[in-house]
Amino acid sequence: MSTDRTTTTLTPPQPPVPSPSPPRSGSGSASCSVAASCSAGPAPALRSTRIRPRLAGRAPAPPAPGAALHSVSGATAVMLALVAIGAVVHEPVLIPPLAASAAIVHGVPGLPLAQPRSVIAGHLLCAAIGYAALAALGSAPWVAAVAAGLGLALMTVARTPHSPACATAVVVVLSAPDARTFVPLLAGSAVLLVLAGCALSRARPGGPRYPVYWW
Questions:
Q1: In Å, how far from its chain's centre is CA 149?
Q2: Rounded CA gap, 87 and 97, in Å?
Q3: 67 contacts: CB under 8 Å, gap ≥ 6
C-alpha cells in the first residue's frame, strides 16, 4: 500500500503596501505640484482666449461682396450725377458735405443719419446757421467752428441728426457762397441723394430697404 505525499509550498507573507496619505491643506509641496500642473495645462488656451477678443474688437462683420459693390457703385453714380449737374449750371455742386452724405445713405442706409428727414433738413438747417453766423461775425475759421457747433445743437433739438451737415455750415462761413444759388442747389442735391438711395435699394432684391422712415 503506497502513500501519496503532497508538498505544500508556503509563500512568505508580503509586507502591507502603505496607502498614499491625502495631502494636507497648506502643504507647500502639494500646492506647488498643483500649481505646476495647472500652469502646464490650460494656461496657454486661457491666454489666447483673452487676447483674441481684444484684437477682433466689436466692429461689425464686413458686408458680402455683392452688397459692398452695390453700395459703392450707387454712391459713386450719384456723386458723378452731382458733378454733371455742376458742369451744366457752372457751379460747384459736389461739395464735401454732400459726398459724405452719399456715403452714409448708400453705405449705412438703416442709420438715423441716413434717413430723408435728417439728410434734407440737416443740410438746410446748418446752411441757415452758417449764413446767420457769416452775417453776424464775418468769415473766419473760429466763426466756422462756432457755426458747426450751433448747427449740431440745432439738429439735435430738431431730431435731424446728420453729421455731414455740420460741414455745410463750415463751407458757408469760409466760402460765403451766394445764397440765391447755393441753397437751391443744396436742397436739390439732398433730395437727389435721397431719391437715388430709394431707387438703388429697390434695384437689389433682398437688400435693405431705404428709407426706414420719411419724417
A1: 23
A2: 18
A3: 204, 207
Query: Based on the number of CB atoms within 10 Å of its own CB, is 132 exposed (0-12), middle (13-18) or buried (19 or more)?
Result: middle
Cα separation, 98 vs 82, whole angstroms: 9
Give yes or no for residue 25 having a pLDDT over 50: no
Q: Locate cell 458742369: which residue?
A: 87
**Looking at the whole model, is its pTM more than 0.85?**
no
Q: How many CA atoms lie within 13 A of 56 on its CB side?
A: 10
User: Which alpha helices (DSSP H) does the chain contain, by range?
Assistant: 28-40, 43-56, 65-89, 96-107, 116-137, 141-158, 164-175, 179-203
C-alpha cell at 18: 502603505
Closest by CA to 189, choosing from 153, 164, 214, is 164
Q: pLDDT tens across 45-80, in order?
A: 545 445 555 656 787 777 788 778 878 988 999 999
Pairwise CA distance, residues 161 & 155, whole Å: 5
Determine phi and psi for 48, rounding to 5 degrees. -65, -35
Q: What is the mean pLDDT of residues 155-179?
A: 96
Round to whole Å and give the CA distance between 87 and 213. 33
